[in-house]
Amino acid sequence: METWDAIRSRRNVRQYTNRPIAREDLELILEAGRRAPSSMNWQPWNLVVVTDRERLVELAKVWQRGGHVADSPATIALVAAEPEDAMHRDWLQYDFGQATANMMLAAADLGIGSGHSAVLDQEQAQRVLEFPEGYFAVYLIALGYPADRPLRPLLRPDRHPFDEVVHWDRW
Ligand SMILES: Cc1cc2nc3c(=O)[nH]c(=O)nc-3n(C[C@H](O)[C@H](O)[C@H](O)COP(=O)(O)O)c2cc1C
User: Residue 118 needs a FRET pair 20 to 30 A away by CA distance; which of 7, 128, 138, 139 works?
Assistant: First the structure.
């Protein structure tokens, strides 16, 4: 798939077929995350890949709108060290957003759907993922082949109009 097609095809996919994701495809998606830019190249990410069904079911309990994690063939947990202050927290969130977009687009390029899940219950996340003290789960990205229809460029995305969003030279 071309980059432009991957950008237009990506959408939140929350229902998946049983088809597992090949290890090499998972590694390519993770590599896309690892290559993301970050503030002063501090690379705040740790990526925990979960494919064990029991663990996925437990991981899905971290947030009430994360049910799709339980049914996914694989979910990537984005884990970071607790930032030292509010400024670093802002950088961290921005950088993880970029890593997330890279991974979701790489997945879309392979025809693999992806769906975010927030993490509310950090204690549950730590129980399941076993990350050390002083770390937290930033977000989850569930992955899987779409159960509804294959990824295809969306002709009418649910977005604000271009001219409402874009300003040239000045607001
Ligand atoms: C920061 C962020 C957090 C999100 N958290 C969740 C979530 O917890 N559960 C969920 O089902 N979708 C979540 N989403 C997905 C959004 O609802 C979705 O991206 C948005 O509705 C646009 O739809 P699209 O991704 O299909 O284009 C999240 C998206 C972002 C960017």
Answer: 7
Query: For the segment 13-70, what is each residue's pLDDT rounded down to a tens digit?
Result: 999 999 999 999 999 999 999 999 999 999 999 999 999 999 999 999 999 999 999 9
Which string of b and e fits 117-148 if b means at least 16 CB within 10 Å? Answer: bebeeeebbbebbebeeebbbbbbbbbbbbee
How far, in Å, from the CA of 143 to the mean position of ligand 1?
A: 13
Write down the residue that tokens 């977009």 correspond to. 101
Instruction: Report the separation in Å between the CA atom of 17 and the middle of ligand 1, taken as the mean of its atom positions.
Output: 20
Strands across the sheet with 135-144, in order? 46-50, 74-81, 135-144, 113-117
pTM confidence score: 0.97
Q: Is the dihedral of CA 98, 22, 121, 130 positive or negative?
A: negative
